[in-house]
Amino acid sequence: MENHKTNEKSNKSRRKFIKLGLMSSVTVVTGIGIASNITSEEKKISSEVKNESSGEKIRLLTPEGKIVEVNETNINNYPEALITPEESRKGIPDRKFVMVIDLAKCKNARSCVEACQKAHQLDFNEEFIKIQLIKNNDESCNYWFPKPCFHCDEPPCVTVCPTGATFKRDDNIVLVDAERCIGCKFCVTSCPYSARIFNWGHKDKFDNKEIPYSPETSVPASEGTIMKCDFCPDMLRQGKLPHCAKACPMGVIYFGDKNEDIVTNGEETVRFSQLIKDRGGYRHLEHLGTKPNVYYLPAVNSQFPLERGFNIDEDILERYKNVDVVEDFIKKNKV
Ligand code: SF4
Ligand code: SF4
Ligand code: SF4
Q: Is pLDDT of 229 > 90?
């Protein structure tokens, strides 16, 4: 395993894993920024815009020529929301994003789920990444299985979508454009991995209407449309890891670029191809032919017994109360 580590535990590179080329900077003319070009230079952009703005509101010129007023804190948080619709459909140039999930390390800490929910303004019971309890056969033990959208190369969800709301980008990411989605749910039924969620309309309490909608952030969400894991392209444009990978305390989730053959969990950076070879990496339900861009490292020599995942948190017990193995565990341990 040592031979594929290229730069282990470098604090400097901890959260930066891909040097995305900076795109053209924002022009500020009498208090109006050219919104279409706002990118990972958000700090510079924000300071430039702040200098020209008064109070908390900032005026920006959208690609459609409309002047919009937004709260300056939203510029810091969602610079990518102002990427043009064309850019958001095409993807980040020269990238082929990939995720690797190390099942041996997962202890169901659920930090990934919570970080994702916070970033995407999801309810407690809405999960873009689900942590499932798996048992391969009667003899083997259970293990935790984090499951996001697989951003398939042959995505049935894209094929069946009648409006083009679901689309595949050149950088491997499959996104949903809520502004085109008519809520027909064809994609929900076609996804063999149950990766999609229908928005039944809880969003009013979260939506900040001042944030311009972008498929790259999935916020603000719209009632009656489909939501799912988006691989956090807004973070990727800033050269950062997706929220789930960044939040995992166990380093379970590696993320990176197939073109560069590099993935990182923020602690160690490794060759993607070598990692998959060394650890027997596989894709879930490979025989379906959807060609996922999420790979798994098998839960062999698991670093954490299943019970550690229950660490007797009320939420977790409630969530898994109908799962046999959990009931047994609760009974045995008189939790
Ligand atoms: S996992 Fe499902 S929703 Fe995601 S790209 Fe594949 S088919 Fe589509
Ligand atoms: S629900 Fe929306 S994204 Fe899904 S198939 Fe229908 S229009 Fe496309
Ligand atoms: S990649 Fe982003 S959207 Fe997908 S599960 Fe992780 S945090 Fe959520």
A: yes
Nearest to 211 by CA among 221, 203, 201: 221
- Ligand nearest to the Cα of 227, by number: 2
Give the Cα separation of 240 and 16 in Å (integer).
Answer: 5
Count of structural domains within the chain: 2
The predicted-structure confidence for 304-330, as pLDDT tens digits, reads as follows 655 545 555 566 566 666 666 566 655
Mutational test site, ligand 2, from 174, 180, 184, max ligand atoms within 8 Å of CB = 184
C-beta 185 within 6 A of ligand 2? yes
Ligand that lies nearest to the alpha carbon of residue 252, given by its number in the listed order: 3
Segment 39-55 shows an average pLDDT of: 37
Residue type (1 letter), 49: V
Q: How far is the CA of 230 from the centre of ligand 3 (A)?
A: 6
Question: Are 114 and 185 found together in one domain?
Answer: yes
For 200-232, give the DSSP string.
-S-GGGT--TTSPP-TTT--S--TTSEEE----
Supply the residue whose CA is at minimum distance from atom 6 of ligand 1.
152
**CA dihedral of 25, 29, 31, 36, whole degrees rounded to 10:** -40
Instruction: Please give the residue range of the domain that contains residue 276.
Output: 97-297
Q: Are 177 and 165 in contact (CB under 8 A)?
A: yes
Q: Are residues 133 and 265 in the same domain?
A: yes
Question: Helix, strand, coil: what percent of the chain each, to 5?
Answer: 30, 20, 55
59 confidence band (pLDDT: 50, 70, 90): low
Q: Whose CA is nearest to atom 7 of ligand 1?
A: 191
Q: Is 299 helix (H, G, I), strand (E, B) or coil?
A: coil
Ligand 3 atom closest to the CA of 99, numbered from 1: 1
- Whether ligand 3 lies within 6 angstroms of the CB of 242 is answered as yes
- Quick check: is 102 in a domain? yes
Kindly report the pTM of this predicted structure.
Answer: 0.73
Q: What is the pLDDT of residues 173-204, one digit of tens each?
A: 999 999 999 999 999 999 999 999 999 876 55
Q: What is the spatial distance between Cα 189 and Cα 156, in angstroms, rounded to a whole number?
A: 10
